[in-house]
Amino acid sequence: MAGEAFKKSREAVVELIAARKLEEQKRKQLQEEFSRWEQRAREAEAAGRKEDAVKAVDRCTEISDADAAAKAHILRLEKEIAAAEEQLRNAAVKESRSVNAEALLASLERVVGPTDSEGKALEKLSQDRSVDEELERLRRRLSEEESQ
């Protein structure tokens, strides 16, 4: 389950970064288009074509508004990226702390021998001081990691 959360978080970060890059490309195109229309407005004004100059200035205003909206969208995406990256970090920590039950059982069986249906292996485990010490060490380590 932790692996699934990590994968989904990573995919979310990638999608958001891709969306931001597309929006940045859109802004660049809008800025280039603004420059072209601004030049047209100046040329029309210089040539005395007032109506063409007004149309060009109006188009500049439309482009400027679209650019401002794209900029605002990029800022929202950056906030979403930061939140998604935090979720990704949290998922990575959870994944690193997850316990593989099969590996734990195999490790215990190496220490105390194979388990049986009567629970004799568990009795032996509770009597073995070195295993208790190892479990206590693992508990302390997990506590330290959780406090970080």
Instruction: State the end-to-end distance.
Output: 22 Å
Q: What is the total domain count?
A: 2
Regions with little confidence, pLDDT below 50 for 5+ residues: none
Strand content: under 5%
Count of DSSP H/I helices:
5
* Tertiary shape: rod-shaped
The topology string of helices and strands comes to HHHHH
Helix content bin: over 70%
Q: Quick one: biggest sheet?
A: none
Tell me the number of strands. 0
Kindly state the mean pLDDT as a whole number?
A: 83
Rg over CA atoms, rounded to whole Å, is 31 Å
Assign the structural class, choosing from mainly alpha, mainly beta, alpha/beta, alpha+beta, or little secondary structure: mainly alpha
Q: How would you briefly describe this protein structure?
A:
The protein is an all-alpha fold and 148 residues long. The protein has 5 helices and no strands.
